[in-house]
Input
Amino acid sequence: MQHMLAAPLPQFLPLHAKPDDALAPLEGWRYLTAWDFQWFPVLMLLLVAGLYLYGVHRLHRRGDSWPMHRTVLFLLGLGVLAVAMFSSIGAYDTVLFWIHMVQHMLFSMIAPPFLVYGAPMTLALRTLAPKPRQLLLGLLHSRFAKVLLFPPLTTAFMVGTPFALYFTGWYELTLRSDVHHDLLHFWMITMGCLFFFPLLGVDPVPIKMPYPIRILLFLLTMPFHAFLGVIIMGSKNLIAEDWYLSFDRAWGPSPLRDQNLAGGLMWATGDLTMLAAMVLIFIQWIKDSNREAKRIDRALDREEAEEAKRAAARYDGPGQDSHPEEGIQDE
Output
């Protein structure tokens, strides 16, 4: 935030702009240069990245392989979170509604698929000591995990959260309270990971859903995001009107135009993300089907080979004449 808030002491969590702060206009190069790093979230992201890379290092050190694309995708997910928190998106997320919507999408729909495709649970299971590995396996297959990762439930959270956020006083509360604002960010990231974790099915999951059901659940979320985006885009009533008008900006889009942009972003980003996820699921479905077909073919080949051996054994075995013509006697 380029210290646009006067803070005499280091802050534990990201700062959030208030109407009485001296805000520099978000214009030109400031979209790229308005970065502000707070030590605690930076430390958490670096810690997660370090633990992941240490796990990959341990696998390589003992001679095991780990797909490079898994590592790249996981680090990209952390990078998306960093951009959402520390760039101009994080600095102006309480000032412009469309900036908040970009952050909303990054937290809940862009970063989580990258993190999930990094397969962190599989990496942990392959690198942990036996006792922690058993504890993690027990947690992944516990009743608690089965409820928490039940795909219809996570889909309901993904669909219902934006409606509850923008059609109640909850959103304005998150603007006025730093604690609630940070809790909202945490919830968005958690909700996104809980939604994509069982549907993408990269890591071990307590309930493995058939591919058609996964695609159906993705399809169900698309019209709801589009519907909400269209409502926000076309509404003449401002969401959190008092808050946004109190900034009295002379720069950027008008409050109504700002809201129209936010609704369009929700509509487009939600549909594109879900469509991309469905394509990935469909590709994964085809690959699994091909692997299963090859497994069945190998099993059939083995059965045919065994049957051929048994037939040969019956032909050459005891009680069978090796040279039947020798048994014919002249009369």
Observations:
- The chain has a mean pLDDT of 83.
- The first helix runs from residue 30 to 33.
